[in-house]
Structure formats: C-alpha cells, structure tokens
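Researcher: First entry.
Model:
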Amino acid sequence: MKRMFLTVVAMLSMTLAFAEDENMNNVNNAEAYNLEVNMNQLGKALGLTDDVKEAVAEIHKTFCAEMMFATQYGKEERDNRVNAAIKKDLGYMNYILSREQYKKYVMLLNLTMANRGLK
C-alpha cells in the first residue's frame, strides 16, 4: 500500500512539473508575440510627420492586439492568424507610408520578428 501511494505521489508530481513547464512555455510565447514599440523612436526612424505617426500608431496598436489574440490558438491556427495580421498590417502601412518609409518599416518588422523567434 505504501509503494502504491509513493507511486501515485511521484506520478502526480511529474504531471504537475510538466504542466508548470507547459504554462511557462505559453507565457514565453505570449511575450514573444508582444510587438509593442516606442512610437517616437519608430517615427524618428521612418521620418514620420505627427499626423502620419498617429495613423501608424493606430494601425500598429491593432496589429499588436491581433498578434496577442493569435497566442490563444494552437500552432497551425496561430501561424495562420499571425500571417493574416502581418499581411493586414503591411497592407495598411503600404497605403499610409511613402515607398522609402515602407521599405524601412518592412525591414524593421522583419528584424523584430526574427529577434523574437517568430520567423
């Protein structure tokens, strides 16, 4: 009886340890998908006027919300939602930014995604 009790306790503790690791992975994933940036620095890097900076901030805020929303799904669905959010973000930015600003924005977004391990 004592052995059976110890076996159950050992299995329960291993299960809890695995669940804790799984929760930590989810937290780390959520942090990687948080792409909020300093809009003043982005505006400086892209040479944005105040009006354009405000529009870019709104578009980026929506993009960040969609990225965080994507973390709630499994790998395949999350990848689909991330790709859709990126495509939508780039479409809006292409409409608002000049050609040179857009090229620089795409480069910065690609670097950020690569640094976060998302691409």
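Researcher: Second entry.
Model:
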Amino acid sequence: MNDKALRLLKVGFLLVVGTFFLFFGLYKAKGFLIPLSLGVFLSLVMLPVAAWFERKGLSRGLSVLLADFAILVFCAVVVFIVSMQVYQIANDWPEYQEKLQPKYEQIMQFISDKAGVSEREIQNKVKESVEKSGESSGNEPGIISKVSSFLGNFLLVFVYIFFLMFYRRKIKNSILGFIPEEKREKAREIINQSSKVSQQYLFGRFLLILILAVLYSVGLFILGIKQAVLISVIAALLSLIPYIGNILGYGIALLMGVLSGNGAGVIIGVSAVFAVTQFIESYILEPFVVGEKVDLNPTITIIGVVLFGMVWGLAGMFIAIPVLGIFKVISDNVPVLNPLGYTLGTEDISTEAGWMKKLKLWAAKKKKHLK
C-alpha cells in the first residue's frame, strides 16, 4: 500500500472514530448541554425584544429581564391552553371510547382471523406488553425525580437566557480575542451573520407558530372538530420540526376529526385546511415573517433533524436547523470549508415551480418596500 492510500485510510479512520466520539460525548453530556443550547438560541430569539426595550430608554438589566419574562409568559400561556384542552378530552373520553370500540373489535377480529389466535390471547399479550413497558428498573429515576429534573432544567434555561443576553457584548469580544487581529474583522462578520441567520429564523418561527395556531383553529372550528384549539397549538408547535412536524400535526388533526364523528367529509375538510394553511405559510407568510431563512437543502435538513433528534430528542430537533445554518455560514466564509457549505446549501437545486418562485420573489420585494 503506497503512502497516499495509507494516509487516506488513516484520515478516514480518524474521521469515523472522531465523529462517533463527538456524538457519543454530546449524548452523554446532554444534561448540561441541552439547557445551555436552548438558552443560547432562545436568547437570540429574544434579543430584538430586549433591544426594543433598551431603545425605549430602559436599562439593559431591566430590558433583558422583561424579554426573559415575556418568553416565560408565552410558555405559561401555551401550557395553560394545552392543559385546559387535555382536561376537556379527559371529560369526553367515554364518548371517544364508545366510538372507538367497534373499530377496535374489528381490528382484533381481523388479527385473530389472520394469525389464527383467539381474541382473548391477543388482549392478554397486549396487556402484558403494556405492563412491561410501564415497569422501571431500580436504576431508573422515579416520577418525582423526573419532574424535579425537568423543572430544574426549565428554570436553568431562563437563567442562561438572562445572563447570555446581559453579557452578550462581553461574550462576543471574548470569542474575538482568540482570533488573530488581521482576521478579527472577518470573524466579526461571520459572528454577526451567524447570529442574524439564527435570530431571524427562530424569531420568525415563533411568530409563525402564533399565526398558524390561529389559522388552524379557525379552519378546524368551522369543521366542527372538538378540541380545535389544542390540535391547532400542537400542530403549530410541531411545525418547528421541518417536514416531519407538519405530517404529525396533520395526522393528529385527522384522528381527532374522525373521533368527532363528522363523517367522511372531515377527511377532505382537514386536508383542505392544512393544505391551504401550508401554502399560505410557505409562499406568503414565510417571506414576510422569516425573511432570508436558513438556506439548507431538504436532504441535509431531514438528516440533521433525525440525527439531532436521536442525540437530544425534541430539543435536538428544535435546534438542528439553526446549528446547521450557523455551520453553513462558517463554511461559506472559510475557504477550506467551502465544499461543505456547497453540500449543505441549495445551490444548483431547483425544487419549486416557476410561479412559486415568482410569488416568493414578489413577497420578498413587498417586505423590502415596507421597510
């Protein structure tokens, strides 16, 4: 084996091993890194709010505190709305159970006929599986421990948000201090661009969640679907997970529509509501609200969401796109990483029809004109 092939083999081996230990380390340290990462990205979301308060003459500390409190209120409102709707579902559960019973019996009969096993045996197997999944080993934390850990991490995120926004200039200057002086201006440009991309995407996404929740609620309420608000809030929040989230939201709405007993027409109605809303979001609202979004190609987006989800769960899915967007900005500005930036981006990829591009271009021009 010549030296070139041996060097290539060593680089490949180190790359595979390094990638494995990188994600293994991220998984093992998720208890520390997830609250910190959420604090970083949520602080970017609330920076425009804190800056607005500062322009109104408030001190930085009070401005940051109000911005931090605003996102806490937002979370509390979402939890309250969801809790009220879940309580309503619990009250209506006997009615849902009555409607599901015939379907359940049909499914059990079908499985029994195909598998050649009695329905009672199937029910016993299902019951055993449920009981086993509910059992926990002595090493696993109990419910109280899990709730305490969640609340602790939840409050810790808001502590991170406050201090990251309050000391944002010091943090930025500290990072620049590691860069040689001749390259400091370029590094400052990369930091500003990365911050703008993440901030624009996340802040715009939160505004879109509110708008989507309203649009879904109106459409589902007109169709007469029960718990329309709960379904709409969940579907809007799931939109944070690209592609997958919209499908899950649609599936939940369809299931609740069927349980509401509105007939076969509800399938067409729910499909129409989600199709129209998705069209409005993608080609009218998004250019106005989000603006220049993270420019990642669909393949990378799906891989990133799945991979981050496997490592950090829902939190990983939430931050996957901003993290990849920041990495793309860095790759586009560092010559040795330019091929990676090209791989991540949408250059030379055309996935939209001509009229869709024209509509997006029109919306972008309108937004620029309004500014």
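Model: Note on the second entry: DSSP finds 13 helices and no strands in the chain.
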